[in-house]
Amino acid sequence: MLLDGRKSHILSTALGGLALGIAGTLLPLTMFSGEEEISYLNGTWQTFAPWLLILIGLIKLLLTNVCIESGLRGGHFFPVIFSGISIGYGIALLSGLNPGFVLAVVTASLLGVTLRKPVAVTLLLLLCFPVRIIPWLITAAVIGSLMPGKPGSECHPPAQFH
Q1: What is the pTM of this model?
Q2: DSSP string covering 74-98
Q3: Which of 29, 84, 90, 152 would suit a FRET pair with 59, their CA atoms being 20 to 30 Å apart?
């Protein structure tokens, strides 16, 4: 009956890949880890409609979960950072607030929900944001880490690292 387990895994991976392919065809910025796409957004975000930037970020969050749950390889960090930046730019366009501030708060909040470790989130995001924004990063990460979620929904390292 080992084959039945493989069929299930193959089907789930194929469905995850199909979802990724459809979304990537319609919204190419949702593809890959988001690292290169962040650079693209940094130079072009003002040419997008705010609702589209928010939609891209939300779809990327959804796709990240679909891909990981369906067995495709990848991680959470860069996709969540990309999603926060995309959503942050959309909110900045809608609100007129300082984009750097909005990006930092939204990204730290999303990573706070994902990691549940505000200090780790702050340190990770210091790769992307200036030191002067630390108070906002840690505040948003703490608030994000307090958001309710299903038990075990936070990121855990693979078993070999425990």
Answers
A1: 0.82
A2: --SHHHHHHHHHHHHHHHHHHH---
A3: 152
Q: 16-33 burial, b for 16+ CB within 10 Å, e for fewer? A: beebbeebeeeeebbbee
What is the rounded end-to-end Cα distance, in angstroms, of the chain? Answer: 31
* Cα dihedral across residues 80, 82, 84, 87: positive or negative: negative
- What is the Cα–Cα distance from 15 to 2, expressed in whole angstroms? 20
Read off the tokens for 29.
């910025």
Six-digit token string for 88: 């942050």
Per residue in 67-115, pLDDT (tens digit) is 777 776 767 788 999 999 999 999 999 999 999 999 999 999 999 998 9
Residue 19's alpha-carbon distances to 8, 110, 155, in angstroms, are 17, 22, 22
Q: Is 104 helix (H, G, I), strand (E, B) or coil?
A: helix
Domain residue limits, the chain: 2-149
Rg (CA), the chain: 17
**Is 84 in contact with 57 (CB distance < 8 Å)?**
yes
